Amino acid sequence: MDFSAQLEKLQQRVSEMLASVQTASAETHDQLKQRIDQARVDANLGLMDAKQQAEQASSQAQSKWAQMKADVSARMDDVKAQIDKRADERDAKAAAKDADRAEQDAADAIDYAVFAFYSARLAILDALDARANADERAKIAGS
Prior knowledge:
By secondary structure, this protein is mostly helical.
């Protein structure tokens, strides 16, 4: 398995996300709404891709992917509900509290991504070790 290629693709996506966030920080509410709609489409496509990958993996991986997909889907629904609610709010204090919550949610999502990164690193190292062990055992068995 080519983990390097997968990690390079992830690195590219992170770079794109960073550029997108930097650009978005100077946009209007309407521009951000359009960006959010596009991000929702992109996330759904990513979830579909993850589902396809999970279907090709073992039942344990499928279980993990299914849980992650459910978590992301629920989070996307929460974000959409918050955005819809925010559009209806007129109270500045409520809007400020909502912004504080949204910022904390974003910080939590970044923390989760960091956790996922380290989990992926551990899984990759485990896979590499398992493959090295299997190759070593095959050599011993072939001797």
